Every structure is written in structure tokens, then in C-alpha cells.
């Protein structure tokens, strides 16, 4: 695997390439009878060594495993633009959260809508503006208001918000017992804690309000784990009825801020 970045362990990384999948081998690394190495992902797929066809042993290459733990690895997405390098213990965590990893469109990934687009996060804004309806996204500065007309149980809404030079995904969901609202930060997992959202509903012509404030959620969090009381904005359906307007619309205000 050719790496255009400046990685000091080029020679060692070449030795750590699996001869079958060409990805970097990480412990456990096993040997064949002739001393060829096989990575842990490829071993279950093989009956014989991919290099010499000899028998694969239940013997680990402990010396190479020790060197693997000391090596500095480039991200697997370096060819897409990621310049990060990591030691063994941090490599897989970064891989799972790298912004250069291809991902599904937010509407498909979070809301289960039938969009077939897949790409990196930095290209998603252009995709959403070009391929989705105007009502699916908005650019805002400060707070923004939303009116939901259909509040029947199992009804859901979603919208992409561009603000603070970042991208967010807002999910509104009505369930039999409660209404929920959650905001995802669409970027590196560790940056989600840098933003929070404030959700507010008000009774018309009164000073009565319900306010909730939460740190934005990251894209690795499952929707079903977030849409629960205490994990995002949550209002009982009886209260939703009290806060509806005369036109039976449920109005709310959201403000996303950087911490």
C-alpha cells in the first residue's frame, strides 16, 4: 500500500502488509509452515497460505506483533485526503470516526429515507443542496423556528441545518407517549461535544415555556438510544397538545451554539 504521507516506518509498514488483502496486519498475526504472515481478518477465509499454499499454523509471529504495536500507521483514507498517523492502539478508533470515510447520506443513515448517495462528509453539503428538496435543508444564523402540522404518533421530520460553518441534522419524532427532538453534529465524533442545542416551545400570548438544552449528538449514536427521556428534548404528548397553536401546529425554536 503506497503512502504519499511522510511516515517514518515505511520499511516496517511494508512488512506489515497482508499479502492477501494488502491492509496492515495487527495482532494476532499467524504464520504458515514457510514463515509467511497472515492477518487476523484473512485467516478465517483461508485453508492454505495465500503466498505459498502451505499449511497455516496456529502459531503467532510475536516479534512482528511487537513491532506492529510500535509502528506509526497512516489512516486507511490517506488517498482521500486524511493526513493523520497513529500508533496501533489509536488506529482503529480513528478509522471508525475518520471524516474521510465514505458514509451514507444523512437522510438515509439517520431517517431511513431512500437516498442512495454515499461519500465523505465534506461532499455531503453539495449533495444535499443539489439532490434534495429545498425544504430538506436551511442555512441559518442564530435561532430558527419550525412549525409541525402533523403530530400523529409515529410521524417524523428531519432537516439539515448549515450554521456556524458546520453541518447539523435535526430529527423531530412523534411517538405514542412522547415527542422528541435531537440534533446531530455531522463531523468528527470528538467535536460533537463542542456544540449544544437549545430547544424551546412557548404558549402563544403567555410567558409559559418549555426549554431543553443538550450537547449535540455524534453520528455514531443510534437513533433509538437517543430518542429517550433524558437523552434529548422530550415532551409528553399531553403537553404537546397544550402548546399547539390555534391552527393546530406545533411550533418550536432551536438554537445551536458553540461551547
Account of the protein in words:
- This protein has 259 residues and is an alpha+beta fold.
- The chain is 19% helix and 32% strand.
- It contains seven helices and 17 strands.
- The strands form five sheets. Strands 8, 10, 11, 12, 15 and 16 form a six-stranded mixed beta sheet that branches.
- The longest helix is centred in the middle third of the chain and has 11 residues.
- The chain is elongated.
- The N terminus is likely disordered.
SS element count, helices: 7
Indicate the radius of gyration in whole angstroms.
Answer: 24 Å
Distance between the termini: 40 Å
Strand-residue fraction? 25-35%
Coarse morphology = elongated
Please state the average pLDDT score: 88
The protein's oligomeric status is single chain
Structural class by helix and strand composition: alpha+beta
Give the SSE string. HEEEHEEHEHEHEEEEEEEEHEHE
The total of beta strands comes to 17
Q: Please summarize the sheet with the most strands.
A: 6 strands, mixed
Show unreliable segments.
1-7
- What share of residues is helical? 10-25%
